[in-house]
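Table S2 (continued). Query chain:
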Amino acid sequence: MQRRVARIFLGPVPAALALLALATAARAQLYLASDGTSNVITEYTNTGSPVHPLTSPLDSGLGVPQGITYTGGELYVADTSGVGEYSATVPNSGTASFISLTTSAVSIASSGSDLFVGVPGGSVFAYTTGGTALAGFTAITGLGSGDVTLALSGSDLFVADNSGTGLLKEYSATSGALLNTFSSPTSNPRGVAVVGSNLFVTNPTAGTGEVLEYSIGSPGQSPTDVAITAATGIAAYGGNLYVLSNNASAPNSVTEYIPGGGTSVLVTGLPTNTYESLVVIPEPTAIAAILGLFAFACALLRYRSPASV
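Corresponding output:
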């Protein structure tokens, strides 16, 4: 009887672990916000295969989307009227006025149930995914006269201002308190992404566009110029960078960059000069599989055989 109980309890575990490994290794999804011309959200796999390309976008009829983030199974978009909330899987399912603002939203980042929204004039506000102001967070103001872009890493919020001031700063994502100011050799830092202990910032005004790499622990040091050209928007996923390019050296494309490794052009043929923001997430089917396997594992842990009592 004891052997039979052992087979019942342990038999599914290797299979579950194997399925979990397959799920976590599944492909990612790229969501791109098109601003200025098409005003849509498009979707690709991280190998460049179209899921909802420009010809049949995931969402259409947006205002001027300038930032996009993903959390809790939903896409949140910084738009002309504020923040919109959309399904990551169902086309044209959502609302453009999830959070209404008196000004446009130009960037957005998320962590769990927290949303951070950049607005023109160098300010950052925080909300919950329920649409209310985030308690304890003091709005960040006075960065510059232009637009800000955002990136999150744990409880740290990184903010770049592209108004010509060259401001690049780190704040507490809990309180909004200033933590560090980075030395910026560019007056126009644009996209921001974090991989491990390194901060990557795009500078699209540097001729063909460049990516600057900072060590988060050394904000006073000058950055390294990473060998990525034509960069505008940028996002991080799985330890790699995904870079939007909108000029002649890498026209209208998304390139995957492995820090310390090589590059691979994933998506081409995007509309000229309309994409500046993207978010990369686990493939939705992989998310569902992981959640299902987690529930299965919990059920196994709760299982008790009468023979073992």
